[in-house]
Amino acid sequence: MHTETRSNQAFKGKKQKTRIEDRFVYQDDELIDKAFDWKQFRRLFAYMKPYARQMLPLVLLMTVLGTITKLTVPYLTSIAIDKAIAPEAGSPSLKLLYILTGIIVALYIVQWISSKLRIKYTNIIGQRVIYDLRSDLFKHIQKLSFNFFDKRPAGSVLVRVTNDVNSLQDLFTNGVVNLMIDCVQLAGIVVILLLINWQLGLAVMITVPIMFFVSTKLRQKIRIAWQEVRMRNSRINSHLNESIQGIRVTQAYTQEQENMRYFDMMNMDSKKSWDKASAMNQMFGPIIEITGGLGTFILFMLGAYMIQSGQLTIGLLVAFSNYVGNFWDPINRLGMMYNQLLVAMASSERIFEFIDEEPSIADKPGAKPLPPIEGNIEFKNVIFEYEKGRQALKGISLNVRSGQSIALVGHTGSGKSTIINLLSRFYDTTEGSVCIDGHDIRDVTVQSLRSQIGIVLQDTFIFSGSIRDNIRFGRLDATDEEVEAAAKAVDAHDFIMKLPGGYDTEVEERGNALSMGQRQLLSFARALLANPRILILDEATASIDTETELKIQDALKVLLKGRTSFIVAHRLSTIRNADNIVVLDHGEIKEQGSHQQLMEQKGIYSGLVEAQFRFL
Ligand SMILES: Nc1ncnc2c1ncn2[C@@H]1O[C@H](COP(=O)(O)OP(=O)(O)OP(=O)(O)O)[C@@H](O)[C@H]1O
């Protein structure tokens, strides 16, 4: 109910065009990259620690083994040329050639096995790290308080659990190990080149800084371009999400054309950004090749001169060119890795920002569990602000005795749901306190408090699973018989039995296949099963037709019997029998008493009742 108000406010005052473009932009999700941050880096890599100790030595061993075998092959080739194929003195030796070929084949096999094992273990490490990170994030998000979600669109929370975690996946599965391989390989090649011929080695390496610079800079541009593509795609996803959720409203207001226009605009943006990124990507290959070509040019010019002057053999020149060929790949990849790290930094910053967010509603240090309650409730001069300076409740004092039923009545926005939110401690009071059986609810554990309060809302949430699972959500250890007894008590049994699979019928997420009233009955059964001492019904009967409501009045009596209950209802017939009817207006209690007393008082309540009857 409030989401609509808030999003409307967000659009207020902006021009139509900017409004459309801004709709699916979540500023903090659009951060492209961050400067390298060691603290963040260490925190991120701490996730690798538990697995690294077991598997990293093996991965390292495989990396070194693979590199040694890879780098030995060109050297053996040079021996084959210089000693077996075209020796300076003596005749060619076929036997030596066979032996060398055999060794080279064996080395290739070792290289293949070591790379297979290395990939296997790095994938295991990477996947476990991502699993841990994702579950830490989800565990934490579940604990965050309502005011955290009030500030953020659901899409932005979703993006962090999916996109941001996924963008780290590549870093952990390939990036880290590739970095190791590349460093080991580069170091190995540099040593070998300098050992074979240090003058030629240094000459060829002149191109390294050029290559590194080109690779890093261009990659940076390419990365930004691809980030842009991802961002545009993420906006499409958010729009798609909203469109599907709101398809009924869209069709009812025949806004399909307008919606299509939004979509088209975003789709076109995404295409354009893709074209741009892809064009840049295509530039990368030729530039790297030209720089590599420069190195090869220096090698052959200088190499030919050295062969003529007797400082180098043909075989060594071939080996040299082989090593140089293997040189560009790691340098190129290191540039890529650097960019990948910067992207990962931005993602991890967003993930840790969530993980570091303290739930504003949490147990005090030393909070004790609330003992089994009787259900006496006291609101002591409660003031509450959702937003600073705007009081939703302006000094509410209310005494409720155990077993009493309290009805909250008042105009839209008068503060009824807020009272209930405070009682369940979804928010803490700004001033004043709420006590249950004399315990300030801020002094007891949240879990012990909420487990003794049952809530039935108008918008009943049905989870994907069977009907039985959905009722059992109230108390997970309930037996099948208890589930069915609860359903019978609230008159839900008959309609459940008419479903194709009875209690085992699978309902889709949000229960779209069930009518609103049926969903409501399920949530009654769920609440009854939980058997809480305090029960809250927030517009819980609003979706049930009057006839069904009359039928379930008895069920409601069963549900409410012996419990302290709060009932919020616009339909006043529902609350006639409440022990105390509390009339709210702009966050203040204006009247309270029984139906009879309030009718005699001829104040706000009797006005509301008369208005409803007149309407009928
Ligand atoms: N999450 C929120 N953030 C900011 N303001 C809020 C939020 N929820 C409610 N409000 C404001 O607090 C006031 C009381 O809202 P509340 O939901 O308690 O009213 P209500 O009496 O339950 O209304 P309704 O009958 O429409 O459900 C309203 O002015 C509303 O705009």
Automatic annotation (TrEMBL):
<dbReference type="InterPro" id="IPR003593">
    <property type="entry name" value="AAA+_ATPase"/>
</dbReference>
<dbReference type="Pfam" id="PF00664">
    <property type="entry name" value="ABC_membrane"/>
</dbReference>
<feature type="domain" description="ABC transporter">
    <location>
        <begin position="377"/>
        <end position="611"/>
    </location>
</feature>
<dbReference type="GO" id="GO:0005524">
    <property type="term" value="F:ATP binding"/>
</dbReference>
<dbReference type="InterPro" id="IPR011527">
    <property type="entry name" value="ABC1_TM_dom"/>
</dbReference>
<feature type="transmembrane region" description="Helical">
    <location>
        <begin position="55"/>
        <end position="76"/>
    </location>
</feature>
<dbReference type="InterPro" id="IPR003439">
    <property type="entry name" value="ABC_transporter-like_ATP-bd"/>
</dbReference>
<feature type="domain" description="ABC transmembrane type-1">
    <location>
        <begin position="58"/>
        <end position="341"/>
    </location>
</feature>
<dbReference type="Pfam" id="PF00005">
    <property type="entry name" value="ABC_tran"/>
</dbReference>
<feature type="transmembrane region" description="Helical">
    <location>
        <begin position="96"/>
        <end position="114"/>
    </location>
</feature>
<keyword id="KW-0547">Nucleotide-binding</keyword>
<protein>
    <submittedName>
        <fullName>ABC transporter ATP-binding protein YknV</fullName>
    </submittedName>
</protein>
<dbReference type="InterPro" id="IPR027417">
    <property type="entry name" value="P-loop_NTPase"/>
</dbReference>
<keyword id="KW-1133">Transmembrane helix</keyword>
<feature type="transmembrane region" description="Helical">
    <location>
        <begin position="287"/>
        <end position="307"/>
    </location>
</feature>
<keyword id="KW-0812">Transmembrane</keyword>
<dbReference type="InterPro" id="IPR039421">
    <property type="entry name" value="Type_1_exporter"/>
</dbReference>
<keyword id="KW-0472">Membrane</keyword>
<dbReference type="InterPro" id="IPR036640">
    <property type="entry name" value="ABC1_TM_sf"/>
</dbReference>
<keyword id="KW-0067">ATP-binding</keyword>
